[in-house]
Design goal:
Elements (H helix, E strand, L loop, with lengths): L11 E7 L18 E5 L2 E5 L17 E5 L6 E7 L9 H21 L3 E2 L4 E4 L7 E6 L8 E6 L15 E5 L12 H12 L5 H7 L4 H12 L15 H16 L3 E5 L8 E6 L7 E8 L18 H17 L2 E2 L2 E7 L7 H12 L3 E8 L12 E5 L5 H14 L4 E5 L6 H5 L5 E4 L25 H19 L1 E2 L8
Parallel strand pairs: 13-15, 13-16, 16-19, 17-18
Antiparallel strand pairs: 1-3, 1-4, 2-3, 5-9, 5-10, 6-7, 7-8, 8-9, 11-12, 12-15, 14-20
Amino acid sequence: MVFSQTAGWASALLLITPYTPNIAIVETAPGCSTDNFYGTYGGRSIFHISPLCLKSDSFDGVEEASLLPYVDYGNRQLVWLQESAIDSALVTPEYEAEVQDFFRWLEEDGYSMGGGQQLSGYQQILSSADEPGVDLHLVKIQPAGGSYALIGVEPSLVPNIEALLPRYWKPYTLPKQPTSYLPVPKPAIEHVKNLLETVRFDPDVSSLVNSISLSQMRDDIRWLTGEDGKSGIVSRHSFAEGSRVAANWLKERFEEMGATCELKTFMMGFAPNVACKYSASVDTTSTVLISGHYDSRGSFGSQRAPGGNDDGSGTVALLGIARAIAHSGLTFRSNVELVAFAGEEQGLYGSKAYAREMRQKDANITVMIQADMLAYHAPGEPPQLGLPMYIGTPEVAQLVSNMSAIYSPELTVGYTAACCSDHQSFHEQGYASTQVFERAGPIADPMYHNSGDLSERPGYDLGQIRSIAKVQFATLLHAAGFDLPGDEDVN
C-alpha cells in the first residue's frame, strides 16, 4: 500500500482507498478496516485507522490510498462531496469556472474570509466570530467519478451543504462514528443466483409489464413538475412546500391502487418518505423493495426545481407499476414495498433512515432496486439501461440485465459510473440491491440538477422510462412470485 501523504499529528486518521467489492478480502489484520468503516462514496471507501494498523502488511492488494490526519475540533460532521460521473459534453467552460470558484472558496477565499488557522499541510479551519466553523480537507483527483472533497462542518449546516455545491456535485454524510462493514450475506446472494437460474420468458409477466400506461405516466410527470398547471408545484426540493404536496399526492395515488401507505418522517425539515406495501398471500417474511426518490434539485439561486428526470422519472415508473398491479388484481407471494424517498439530493437521508430501520427490525429484504433518472435519451444513441459500476450487488444487476433482454430487448444494457442513489443505503446494510439508470455511461442530461428539468423538452423520452419500468416490474414479479385472479398456480 502506498500512502499519498505522511500522517502528522491528528485526533483521527482517515484512510481513503479505491473501491473494492468485498473489503474483507483486502484485510489481513482482522478488524482494521471491517470494524472501522465509514462507507463507500463514488469510487472510494473510507476507514478510521488506528496507528497499530498502519503497518505495510495490514492491507493486502490496496495499491494506492490516501491517509488523512484529521483534527476534530468539537462536534464536527464529516461530509464527502463527490462530483458525479458526467459526459464530457457537460463539462462546459461555464461549469469548469463554477468548479474552480468552488475550489477557490474552499482553499483560499473561505480560509482567508474566515480568518482561518492552518492545522496541517492540507487541513484548515474556516471560521470567524460570526460564522460556524468548517474543518476542511480538500483532495483534487481525477478518477472515473471525478473530483471529491472531504470536509467537516457544524452539524446544523449539513442539510444545507447541497445548496453550496457546483451543479454536478452531491454531498454524502458520513456516520458520526465508524461502523462494522456489513457485506451481503452468502445466503442472500445464493437466493439471487437461484432466481437467475429460473429466469424464463413468461407470457403472464409479458402481459403485465406491457400494461404499463405511457399516457398515464405523461400525466403523472406533468403533475409532479407543475407543467400541467394543476398541482401548483414549483419545487420538490426536500425543504420546499411542493415536496409535501407531492408526498400527499403520491400516498393518495398508491392507496387508490390498493397499497397500504405511510408517510414516514426521518428528520426535521425534510419531506417524508412515502412507503407503500402489499402483503404477501402466504406466510413469509421475505420482502422485495423497489423505489425512486421524489425530491428534486434546481439551478443555483433558483426557486424552481421541477425534477422531471431526477427523479420524477423513477417516481412515475413506480406509479406505472402500481397501476398495472391494481388493474391486474394480482397478489404477491412475497411482501412487496414501493417506496418514494425524500432527502436523496442532500445525501440519501431518507433511504439511509429507512434502510437502518429495516436492519434494526432484521427485515428480510431479498431484492432491492432503485430507479433514478430514466428519461434522458442522448441524440443518436439507442435507448439504454445503465447498471452501477461500483455500488451494488452484481448478481442483482445481472438479474435485471437478464430481464431486460427478455421483456425490453430494445434497451442496450451496460454499466455506468454515475453513482450513487438510494440503493447504496441498502447495500451498506447488507441487502442485495442495485440501481437502474438511463444510460450505459456517464450522465449526459444537460438539465441534470437544473431548473429546466422538465418533461417537455428535447431528449426526454417517456418510451425509455416505460421500457426501464417494464424491466423493474418484471424483476419484481419474478423475485416476489405472484398469482392472478382465478388461478392458484399461474407462476
